[in-house]
């Protein structure tokens, strides 16, 4: 539900795809997120791809949260239950605050498509240096669920009764 009195505020959103096997040419999840955020009126801050390496992930995200121009980071991949899936461990340590409800709501929404397999999703979100960080599974279907059911509205200042926009830093 949108509040007619508020204006849409485009955000600068970075996308990080975490994968040991994908290239940009095969990154349909990153493509979907990029197209969706641009269609919604946001700006693509930067898009990168890296392997499932804890310190590589952490270094990229740390660079983005240190830059006052980057307001949101969406990470796709590395949130599963396999040994190599370490995205939550890589980024959670950076959070000033954890958005516990994000993972809960994501799993609830995902249950419609992947049934009880959603229990193995370790989607997480938090705020670090007034930058929102969302880590979601790497499948395009999961990205569609995260964007369409949660992020598109929560990253829109017009969404009421509340949204994430007041929690990001704004460039003056």
TrEMBL record:
<keyword id="KW-0501">Molybdenum cofactor biosynthesis</keyword>
<dbReference type="InterPro" id="IPR013484">
    <property type="entry name" value="MoaB_proteobac"/>
</dbReference>
<dbReference type="InterPro" id="IPR008284">
    <property type="entry name" value="MoCF_biosynth_CS"/>
</dbReference>
<dbReference type="Pfam" id="PF00994">
    <property type="entry name" value="MoCF_biosynth"/>
</dbReference>
<comment type="pathway">
    <text>Cofactor biosynthesis; molybdopterin biosynthesis.</text>
</comment>
<protein>
    <recommendedName>
        <fullName>Molybdenum cofactor biosynthesis protein B</fullName>
    </recommendedName>
</protein>
<dbReference type="InterPro" id="IPR001453">
    <property type="entry name" value="MoaB/Mog_dom"/>
</dbReference>
<comment type="function">
    <text>May be involved in the biosynthesis of molybdopterin.</text>
</comment>
<dbReference type="InterPro" id="IPR036425">
    <property type="entry name" value="MoaB/Mog-like_dom_sf"/>
</dbReference>
<dbReference type="GO" id="GO:0005829">
    <property type="term" value="C:cytosol"/>
</dbReference>
<dbReference type="InterPro" id="IPR012245">
    <property type="entry name" value="MoaB"/>
</dbReference>
<dbReference type="GO" id="GO:0006777">
    <property type="term" value="P:Mo-molybdopterin cofactor biosynthetic process"/>
</dbReference>
<feature type="domain" description="MoaB/Mog">
    <location>
        <begin position="14"/>
        <end position="158"/>
    </location>
</feature>
<comment type="similarity">
    <text>Belongs to the MoaB/Mog family.</text>
</comment>
């Amino acid at each position: 539900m949108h509040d007619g009195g508020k204006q849409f505020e485009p955000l600068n959103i970075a996308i990080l795809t975490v994968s040991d096997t994908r290239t940009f040419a095969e990154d349909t999840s990153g493509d979907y997120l990029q197209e969706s955020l641009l269609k919604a009126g946001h700006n693509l801050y930067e898009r990168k791809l890296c392997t499932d390496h804890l310190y590589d992930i952490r270094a990229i995200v740390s660079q983005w949260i240190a830059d006052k121009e980057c307001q949101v980071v969406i990470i796709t991949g590395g949130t599963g239950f396999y040994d190599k899936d370490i995205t939550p461990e890589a980024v959670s340590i950076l959070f000033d605050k954890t958005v516990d409800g994000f993972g809960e709501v994501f799993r609830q929404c995902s249950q419609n498509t992947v049934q009880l397999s959603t229990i193995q999703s370790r989607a997480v979100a938090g705020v670090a240096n007034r930058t929102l960080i969302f880590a979601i599974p790497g499948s395009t279907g999961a990205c569609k669920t995260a964007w369409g059911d949660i992020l598109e509205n929560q990253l829109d200042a017009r969404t009421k009764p509340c949204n994430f926009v007041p929690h990001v830093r704004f460039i003056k």
